[in-house]
Write a structure and sequence with these properties.
alpha/beta; MutS, DNA mismatch repair protein, domain I; Nucleotidyltransferase, domain 5; MutS, DNA mismatch repair protein, Chain A, domain 3; 7-stranded mixed sheet; 6-stranded mixed sheet; about 40% helix; about 15% strand; disordered N terminus
Length: about 850
Amino acid sequence: MAKQKKYVETPLMKQYYSIKAKHPDAILLFRVGDFYETFGEDAIKGASILGITLTKRANGAASFVELAGFPHHSLDVYLPKLVRAGQRVAICEQLEDPKTTKKIVKRGITELVTPGVSIDDNVLNHKENNFLASLYFTRQSIGVSFLDISTGEFLAAEGDKSYIDKLISSFKPKEILFPKEAKEMLKDVGADAFYTYGLDDWVYNYDNSLEKLTKHFQTNNLKGFGIDTLHTGIIAAGAILCYLDLTQHHQVQHISSIARIEEDKYVWLDKFTIHNLELFGSLHEGAKTLIHILDKTITPMGARMMRRWVALPLKNVEAINHRLEVVKEMYSNDGLQDEIDYELRKIADLERIISKVAVGRINPREVVQLKNALEAIEPIIAYCKASGNETLQSYADQLNPCTAIKERISKEIVAEPPVLLNKGSVIADGISDELDELRSIAFSGKDYLQRLQQRESEETGIPSLKIGFNNVFGYYIEVRNTHKDKVPETWIRKQTLVSAERYITEELKEYESKILGAEEKIAHLELTLYNKLIFALSEYIQAIQLNANILSCIDCLSSFAKVSTENEYNCPEVNDTLIIDIKEGRHPVIEQQLPIGESYITNNIRLDNNAQQIMMITGPNMSGKSALLRQTALITLMAQVGCFVPASEAKIGVVDKIFTRVGASDNISMGESTFMVEMNEAASILNNISQRSLILFDELGRGTSTYDGISIAWSIVEYIHQMKDIRAKTLFATHYHELNEMETSFERIKNYNVSIKESGNQIIFLRKLERGGSNHSFGIHVAKLAGMPKTVVDRANKILVQLESKTKEDVSNEKTTSSVPSNMEGDYQLSIFQLDDPVLEQIREQIKNTDINNLTPMEALNKLDEIKKISGL
């Protein structure tokens, strides 16, 4: 925090600065009456982010401080904006009633909200987890832990840099904790691309972390969670619990377990592959991704699980086939799927709602939503049991309708309660005799007063007598002056008006104290009864969390069935072989974006470790080579996620890793060129492949000169082919036709090309994969299709002819000189003074076609003017 000037401060500002000093890096929302105020630098920053007015207020003698604030009831509007802007926000509340003290009101931090620690619905994306991650570095390994406090999911793992990088890329945490001394190591695991926060080194201690975790879970050790051997993982997880204490999040009983992320259980998808296959995002604005195609889930927790499944495909054949069998059951039984979907629509975000029970922030309407979800579970259990599918029946056995608490909620909470408890009318009638009586007094008061008024009028003979109320005197009886002689002596006069007198009676005064206290008592009694219900509900947290997890699985599998039906997918055969055999495969995303009436051109792919390990695919630019590579990876991934695939038939021998080197772009911010990015990704692949890996290379080597590119591409393919006992299945798309020669020297490399049809000077992309290599790239045709100026296209054709003729001449003379046109020899960059410049080429053509001998002076001037325009002078 910036050093404050020395001056006499007001008591309020002294209190503010003392609290601010505890959280100097957070924006402090300081409760003052009905407003949250920010001061100084916080006010300047907050006003800019929130778009609120920045003013000044007095702060002692001859001093002012910047001020910006908003009404306390607007916290849900403004807090999300601050958190989404990457700000840490400390919420400071008044800890006592201002009416009960003559001194300055006691205040304190009640919560520190950060991008990774929030349970506010307005901050969270209901389709994504909001993970907080923690990293701990040693020379031997790196520990990582992930926690979503909004759902209670807690995970731990450890591994080398590449594995941790992969996990961070898959889980995409909103905030990453790390030891302050290890800041330089964040970039080694890709963490520097996320919001990070450094903690003091003492937080990352094994003994403290172990004690914190066992104390939290109330166990003697961590063996039951399967993480007892993860030394660095335990340290990372313990740091997260410590951070929750530091941020004032103490009610965390919904974090009821911690699980190990098992590296051997899931397919390796590094950050390059996740990016290149466009699983979750695309560089192109508005473009669809795989998750957009597959996610037809109904519940928010189902949507979150879908992202997890896509990021972590399974490697276990049995587990994959369990999912596929459920999808097959729903695919063939529309009635079952429709019935389950109907019930799922009644279920809100069960996972996050039950977490709010633990932190004491569940509102009455969410309690009713929870009850509705529990009611929907019973028919889902019945449908799953009747399905005949073992996995669905297993789900049915694990689902718990929590009948007792469901019936209690139904009995004690009204059917349509308000969101806020203090609005009243939350607890149903018949639950508390005292509450019913108080409500009778508070809400039937008008009837009582009418009866009292009628009775007093009859007894006194004053027909115009009226009972009224104001904030000064409370309830009163008003009598006109014409009847004041009829007023009983027991009445007490309280106010004289021009034409009337106002009185009170003992009965009226007694009723007043009764009715005014009733509303306050009702609020207190409703709060007490509501808290008792929530306490009872907290006993069901783990059971409801399990329900949420199982319902999420059912939702995801139902989504796969819907997608498979709509898009005409077929069930793959997933096995333990080393063969990938796809018949009539399609790209799941591209086929959904084709113009109406246009069908996707399907292709067959077969890869194995013995006969056809590497498919060398050549073909014109824009012919569909990249799409073919991606669709093969996506079909494999979809099969191992447990979804049907866009192919007429697919036999998938499970892969353990999918690597892609697709596309290229400069990483200027990191000082890396296109070629460096290519080599980094290629190196990552070669250092991590296994016999079950699937590798996709697209145009490798184009980031450098032609012969360098060919040499590197050749050596990489040769390396993959010659690796003993590995023989990773590889698709290699290239524009280097020289690589077709590899088929003759390496037995498991086979040439293929994506076919085209030539018609005159035009080409038609057939997008069909055929056996054999291609010896033409048709790049100039593509340039023409892209709208390149005709002069550039014509010039490119001439240079191509010169290059080809020069190459033939060099081959015939067994020369090794560079294949460039003679007029370009020794100078690889065109100069504006060369006749090979396109503009000068046009001028030369103009002069060449001019008959100077028969040119009149006027025609000569016009010709010069034309040449001047061409040259742009």
